Amino acid sequence: MNVISGTADRLSNELCSKMSSYRHKVFVETLKWDLDCKNGHELDQFDRQDTVYVVSQDDLGQVNGCARMLPTNNPYLLGDVFPELMNGLPLPNSPDIWELSRFAAVDFNQRTSSALGQFSSDIAVSLLQESIACAAARGAKRIITVSPIGIERLLRKAGFHAHRAGPPMVIGGHPIFACWIEISENVKT
């Protein structure tokens, strides 16, 4: 597995295109999320110049995982789209609290690949570790994420200190929740 991170201007145009196509395949085609997409590419208002991406590829250069990282002192998914997931608590708004979103680790080149299996795959654990380390290297002390319930299993398996910010809710037919991930001092940066 090869992991590359950086803002869109640091990643190649080819990799950015593969990543947005991969996101479309995962979130729209496989998980059936109702997202506004163009030409088979999934991007939204949170894909900006300051957005940091973490992208994993297999040995053939095919994307098999991605994550989007944003500091919460600028617009972000939880704050702008899903604030009710904080259960009335204040929304994070700090350069040292980052949001992890559009996390996926489905290897479509594996015969046993499934979208639900992403929450227990080795790729998912490695990608999550890399994503957290990437945010920590940029000053993050905590991570907040909007995720499907299955991400809890991945977090427990990987040994991360994580807890719900509020109770799960069904939004758009999908059970999701906001989750804090504490960045330990043991994270490699």
Mean pLDDT: 89
- How is the CATH topology named? Aminopeptidase
Instruction: Quote the beta fraction.
Output: 25-35%
Distance between the termini: 18 Å
Please tell me how large the radius of gyration is: 15 Å
* Strand count: 8
Shape: globular
CATH architecture: 3-Layer(aba) Sandwich
Order of helices and strands: EHEEHEHEHEEE
Supply the number of helical segments.
Answer: 4
SS-derived structural category? alpha+beta
State the oligomer. Answer: single chain
Number of domains: 1
> Major β-sheet, in short?
8 strands, mixed
Catalytic activity: a fatty acyl-[ACP] + S-adenosyl-L-methionine = an N-acyl-L-homoserine lactone + S-methyl-5'-thioadenosine + holo-[ACP] + H(+)
Keywords: Autoinducer synthesis, Quorum sensing, S-adenosyl-L-methionine, Transferase
Pfam family, one: Autoind_synth
InterPro entries: Acyl_CoA_acyltransferase, Autoind_synthase
Would you write up a description of this structure?
- This protein is α+β, with helices and mostly antiparallel strands and 189 residues long.
- The chain has one domain: Gcn5-related N-acetyltransferase (GNAT) (Aminopeptidase, 3-Layer(aba) Sandwich), CATH 3.40.630.30.
- The protein contains four helices and eight strands, in the order βαββαβαβαβββ.
- Strands 1, 2, 3, 4, 5, 6, 7 and 8 form an eight-stranded mixed sheet that branches.
- The longest helix is centred in the first third of the chain and has 18 residues.
- It is globular.
- The protein starts with a strand and ends in a 7-residue tail after the last strand.
- The model has no long low-confidence stretch (mean pLDDT 89).
